[in-house]
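Colleagues,

For the teaching module next term, I've prepared a clean inverse folding example: a structure given as tokens, and then the sequence designed for it. I'd like students to try predicting residues themselves before seeing the answer, so please don't circulate the second half yet.
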């Protein structure tokens, strides 16, 4: 069985025009000139940001949602937080009746629905168990890290309808949206075994998070504790379909579509977006544009980067884990064409990274970007990046 899955993974990669990478030369992407860092500035923790980007000092990590009265809401391991002064000060509220049994994992997702319900999806670190990657079998049998959802009907002050949705190892929960017709959809993960690799699932609710229905499991093969498809982001297109971008180890984001609000996904294929093995964030803005923030496969202007994996432990193919730059681009036509990718933040200290972005449109055209790794906390304006392209 293990041999069949490894072969299946290789066949998937080859069938879509991607080959296992043996060197940096295997991906022939064309990049612009290297980033000119002379025109920007440094944040308090030493990250270069472009001149039209502003640091937000002291802001929490996120993700955030806007509340109707202009307040901000976010969460940490056991509490929700509300700020009435743009994140300078916060008031906390408990989420759980038994807080000792829960710890919200650092990757999580929030949404505020049209009806005024707040929904939080998370993995519970307190139930994490049996993670013991075994090199001989390339797996961690029985690994547990459950996916949960909970909701608030009073603006995040009290929480109810806590539900466990699966026990399987949830590597990360990254994104959640409400569709035009009021369906709530969030992305999650389920580890697969023999051999070990990751897969993506989504959950859909038609009643503001009271009940959930799971999608088909998106398992495209792979081997390794970072193998498979992971950490997806999604948005609704103007034609009603959902579009999801999957993190892979295959040099690009892969994409998939759903025509039934995330119950069934199909038509898996590689995008044209070169991407390192790191998640992106895709969002629909008030302007109607789509925006994508991510780490590219190579640093801008470079054609090589140290590769990791290829040993069936991290992954079945060598892959770039470049996370030293964050890039942004916009689309007016639902992803058919894009503005020129622009690096807006770059590390300056060896061994550091800025990755796992969260994105909030705080006001129309005003984008707040925060990262899980690297503690980036900045705001930028859509118009500055649209007008320069």
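(Answer key — instructors only)
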């Amino acid at each position: 069985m293990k041999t069949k899955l490894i072969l299946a993974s290789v066949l998937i990669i080859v069938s879509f025009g991607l080959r296992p990478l043996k060197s940096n030369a295997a991906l022939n992407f064309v990049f612009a000139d290297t980033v000119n860092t002379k025109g920007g500035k440094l944040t308090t923790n030493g990250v270069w940001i472009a001149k039209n980007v502003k640091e937000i000092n002291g802001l929490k990590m996120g993700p955030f949602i806007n509340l109707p009265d202009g307040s901000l809401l976010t969460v940490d391991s056991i509490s929700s937080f509300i700020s009435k002064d743009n994140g300078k000060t916060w008031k906390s509220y408990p989420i759980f009746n038994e807080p000792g049994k829960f710890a919200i994992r650092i990757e999580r997702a929030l949404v505020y629905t049209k009806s005024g319900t707040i929904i939080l999806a998370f993995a519970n670190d307190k139930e994490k168990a049996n993670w013991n990657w075994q090199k001989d079998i390339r797996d961690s049998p029985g690994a547990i890290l459950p996916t949960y959802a909970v909701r608030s009907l009073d603006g995040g002050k009290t929480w109810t309808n806590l539900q466990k949705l699966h026990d399987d190892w949830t590597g990360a929960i990254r994104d959640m949206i409400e569709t035009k017709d009021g369906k709530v959809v969030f992305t999650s993960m389920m580890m697969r075994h023999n051999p070990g690799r990751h897969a993506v699932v989504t959950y859909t609710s038609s009643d503001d998070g009271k009940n959930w229905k799971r999608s088909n499991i998106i398992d495209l093969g792979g081997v390794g504790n970072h193998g498979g498809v992971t950490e997806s982001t999604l948005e609704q297109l103007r034609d009603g379909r959902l579009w999801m971008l999957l993190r892979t180890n295959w040099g690009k984001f892969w994409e998939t579509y759903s025509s039934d609000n995330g119950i069934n996904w199909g038509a898996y294929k590689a995008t044209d977006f070169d991407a390192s093995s790191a998640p992106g964030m895709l969002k629909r803005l008030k302007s109607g544009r789509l925006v994508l923030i991510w780490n590219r496969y190579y640093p801008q202007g470079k054609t090589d980067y140290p590769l990791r994996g290829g040993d069936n432990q991290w992954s079945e193919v060598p892959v770039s884990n470049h996370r030293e730059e964050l890039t942004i681009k916009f689309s007016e036509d639902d992803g058919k064409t894009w503005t020129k990718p622009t690096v807006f933040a770059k590390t300056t200290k060896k061994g550091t990274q800025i990755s796992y972005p969260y994105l909030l449109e705080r006001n129309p055209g005003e984008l707040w970007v925060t990262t899980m790794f690297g503690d980036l906390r900045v705001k930028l304006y859509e118009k500055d990046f649209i007008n320069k392209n």
